[in-house]
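INPUT
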Amino acid sequence: MIRELTVLSGKGGTGKTSITAALGSFAKNAIFTDCDVDAADLHLLFNPDILETHAFEGGTKAEIDPDACIGCGICQDACRFDAIKRTDHGWFEIDSLHCEGCRLCERLCPESAIFSIRSMNNQWFVSDTRFGPLVHARMGPGEENSGKLVTTVREKAREIARSKNYNIIINDGPPGIGCPVIASLAGIHKILLVAESSESGYHDLLRIIELISKYDVDIFGIINKFDVNAGISERIVSILQSNNIKITGKIPFDKKFVEAMVQGKTISEYAPGSAIVKVIRNTWEMISS
Amino acid sequence: MSFKITVASGKGGTGKTTVATNLYWSLVKNFDNDTLLVDCDVEEPDDLLFFKNAILRSEVKVTQAVPEINTSKCTYCRKCVEYCEYNAITVIPPVQYASIAPDLCHSCGACLYACQDDALIEKDHEIGLMSGYDVGFGKGLLEGRLKIGSAAQTPVIRRVKKEALDAASVILFDAPPGTSCSVVTSVLDADFVIMVTEPTPFGLHDLKIAVELIREMDLPFGVVINKAGLGDRAVYDYLEDEGIDILEEIPFNEEYARKFSEGMILSRIDKNYAIHYQKIIRKILEFKQQ
Amino acid sequence: MKTIITANGSDVNATLDPRFGRCEFFCILDEETGETEFIENKAKLQSSAAGTTAAETVIEQGVKKVISGDFGPKAKSLLDRFGIQMVILKDEGQIIANVINSITGK
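OUTPUT
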């Protein structure tokens, strides 16, 4: 049976991607996805050979044909997103940054002057890497539908896992608790939380724990940069314990993570004998047992 | 008209919140007491943690209007299903089933136009909380906070921005990380955008996408390099090639990291650190006067 | 009683499609007569809520049982609501004809 692990953090910049990548050296027969589609960084450490490139249909945006518009204003009255502005000539135009592509204006326009254009500004890829296949994406700046792109990436990974008999899918999750995070949680079996010893890290950890408490999954926690604030680390340990989250280890602040990143390596490759990598190996052993 | 500054970053954890809160302090002390800080990172609103003496002044539920189907009036014609671009409506005529999924609904109102049977009524659905705080200096903090489990970040941000409209002469927005629609909503209409990055490969990669977005939106911006001294020079090379202004470099320092981790506004007690923010303000003012 | 099996193609030589919401075809089997009918899954290319729309089709067809490889949470709760039994087959690549034989006992 295929198992799925998603690595999450709530707060951004806790080391989620560096730790996900470091698991690559220990996970055997694994396939990876990068679900942080609007700031995807895993490929910078995995150096993928892209095998397939696919376009992903984004949302639609309305446009008004200025020659057909009679300036009646029905569209502007109906639009709830303030996306329709009157021009100096008395006609109307769409402010595409506000438009959410509901197409109501298009349906109501008595002159059929409004049409919709679908954005094709997103791509997703299937790649080969030294750690196994990687399914990742590049979202066009400002695009909507990040949750749907996450779902697409994950579906492709499952398809590959099924047809090529991979037994674990490791998803590098997005930060936050919003729609792409929710999309990276559907149907998974295990979660690894990467916490960071700061007030913000603690606060954001509480929010992500509350979100995932509704899911029937095994939850693990690792504390990164634990020595930056030992007092907060203590609080993180107790909150993890009281939520029955298995603590896999603590990692000190170490510039080696950045040095490894600059060289395009994972910490497991850059400093294989280090204490940090022992913690990561232990994390993997706990998660995979 | 307010002067609106938005602090954004592609990558998370570059120090966006640190910069926003310290800049708020410096703006209030050195430029204009009538400055409001607005936390638009509604998934993880952390600005409040930097104000230990904050006093809650107002609290409003943020709601989204989601229609409900009155099955005694519904004729199961499926016209609303056809109008809904977000696949939020399920109608199964043979079993007389009709319902709307609030998590997929964008509250566009299209289904209300579709229904000829008066079977749809909009009901308020809670998606978050908007809170105003006195923080002891300046105009205070306005915070948006997404309800856990809701996927409606953008409507919460929109609501908070509406509240902030012309509420102070300077408004400082703290945007969420990334480059998706919630960032667009936060950055929209800014007079100046500060992008916070770190000199690492991840920082650079995500900065490039964020720059692409801000350029597409045609907004003036500059970059603050936080944690300078970590990583490599690639960010500097990129900024030079692209002709992008570096507003300021803030060096990495383990002692700073410890203070920030406690939620401390370091500019309040450390003059050397405060200078970075005075320089950022000077650069923004130069831009404003142009 | 009618049963739906998610299929990769439109005849009994096709294999079981493991994706419920985004399967290619639904094979509708009449368990009494052994007759089959294949209908295309209109939800397969839908950008969101494919599982819900696929469940809609299943409910409209009046079947009592669905056989697939995986069901999403929304499809699951809708099918549950109408008392439709969900059977998950883990054995990928099974030919539809064999699945039918194991149901009808032939």
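end of record. The interface with chain B takes residues 46-49, 52-53, 56, 59-60, 62, 74, 78, 82 of chain C (CB under 8 Å).
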